[in-house]
Write a structure and sequence with these properties.
Nucleotidyltransferase, domain 5, 164 residues
Length: 164
């Protein structure tokens, strides 16, 4: 039996990265109920799937939002692509709907001209949830710096907001 999308669904968004994943849970009318980063060791995909399963069991979301990594032009590692497929299978086992969005779709949702950087989108998310996330926005990275893992929280929130 498939769940229909509620008027105010509970949305769990997941943003995988090299060392774990960022997540965000939105309930009701844009209430950011939980968010964070989960770091993993060892078999990263298996550990991520186990921690994501815990989140699914705890929060029982109606929808899981993910970045669409299926297209060839997406610059994500093979491990992240495989992890995304495993998350989709896990969601199906728990009868949770999955919605995937490309980075371009997210950028156009926040900036209709489509010319937005990942940091610009994160700034918009931080403005929308200023009490919860405003102080967590890392400084804009320089070209020689690695991306701050906290950016994955903002990616996850942006993906969750796409479901609406």
């Amino acid at each position: 039996m498939k769940k229909s999308l509620s008027k105010y669904p509970r949305i769990l968004a997941i943003s995988p990265f090299y060392d774990g994943f960022g997540f965000a849970l939105i309930e009701g009318l844009n209430t950011l109920a939980d968010w964070g980063i989960r770091h993993v060791n060892g078999d990263k995909n298996a550990s991520c799937v186990a921690k994501i399963k815990e989140l699914i069991v705890r929060y029982q979301p109606y929808v899981i939002a993910l970045e669409d990594t299926s297209h060839r032009s997406v610059r994500r590692s093979p491990r992240i692509r495989a992890l995304t497929k495993k998350i989709i299978l896990l969601a199906k086992k728990h009868d949770v709907r999955v919605m995937c969005f490309s980075r371009e779709q997210v950028a156009k949702a926040f900036f209709p001209d489509g010319h937005a950087t990942k940091y610009n989108v994160a700034q918009k998310v931080a403005e929308k949830f200023s009490d919860e996330l405003g102080f967590r926005l890392p400084p804009k990275r320089r070209p020689w710096q690695s991306e701050d893992s906290r950016m994955n929280i903002f990616d996850a929130v942006a993906l969750a907001l796409m479901v609406r």
